[in-house]
Amino acid sequence: MADQEDVYSVWALPPPEVSDRIKALTATLRSEFGGPQFDPHITVVGAIRLTRESATRYLRTASESLSPYAARVAAVARGFFYQCVYLLIEPTPEVLEAGAHCSKHFGYEAPTPYMPHLSLLYGDLTEEEKEKARKRVEELDAGLVGLAFKVSSIGLFKTDTEDKSLKSWEKIEICDLK
């Protein structure tokens, strides 16, 4: 059982005051549009199949040589289920380097170019509903676009992407960046 592989992701975690602000916003969005609950995060390494032991080791190694970095919200946007409505994070060299750094440690090759984002709502909504939800974000928190914050911790999460209820998702470990 020790060498069983599961699907993991690495998340950059916003500081508590930003996380609390996002949680309040997402609670309102879920009450109006539905969708599962999840913690605020910026995916740094997408779903990758590994043993828990390897994934934890890679996280620790990656975090040891990664400094806290600045992130800034560029826009409120919409996309597919896991990016139904999200905050696009400005792809600054610092943000992109953090993604590349962690991906290298995990041996992860992204199927698409890294697009840093902080999802607000997961769901299979129509384009009209997504746009309504996107506009609702701007009504609920007009100051989000332009919001800048420091990412000073990354976490390893078990994230079975087949489980759209997210009930099987689990926090494994958080590492503070120095």
Your description of this structure?
The chain is α+β, with helices and mostly antiparallel strands and 178 residues long. The protein has a single domain, classed as Cyclic Phosphodiesterase, Chain: A. The protein contains 4 helices and 8 strands, in the order E-H-E-H-E-E-H-E-H-E-E-E. The chain has helices at 16-33, 52-64, 93-106, 127-140; strands at 5-13, 42-51, 69-78, 85-89, 117-121, 148-151, 153-158, 170-176. Strands 2-1-7-8 form a 4-stranded antiparallel β-sheet, covered by helices on one side. Helix 1 crosses helix 4 and helix 2 runs antiparallel to helix 3. One of its GO terms (molecular function) is 2',3'-cyclic-nucleotide 3'-phosphodiesterase activity. It comes from Asparagus officinalis (Garden asparagus). InterPro entries: Cyclic-nucl_3Pdiesterase, Cyclic_Pdiesterase. This is Cyclic phosphodiesterase.
Question: Could you name the key traits of this structure?
Answer:
single chain, 178 residues, alpha+beta, Cyclic Phosphodiesterase, Chain: A, four-stranded antiparallel β-sheet, 4 helices, globular, Cyclic-nucl_3Pdiesterase, Cyclic_Pdiesterase, Cyclic phosphodiesterase, 2',3'-cyclic-nucleotide 3'-phosphodiesterase activity
Estimate nothing, just give the exact number of structural domains: 1
Query: Strand arrangement, largest sheet?
Result: 2-1-7-8
Helix content: 25-40%
Q: Describe the biggest sheet?
A: 4 strands, antiparallel
Count of DSSP strands: 8
Strand content: 25-35%
Structural class: alpha+beta
On the 0-100 scale, what is the average pLDDT?
90
CATH topology: Cyclic Phosphodiesterase, Chain: A
- The rounded distance between the terminal residues' Cα atoms is 34 Å
- Low-pLDDT residue spans: none
Number of helices: 4
Note the run of SSEs as H and E: EHEHEEHEHEEE
CATH architecture: Alpha-Beta Complex
Q: In one word, what is the shape?
A: globular
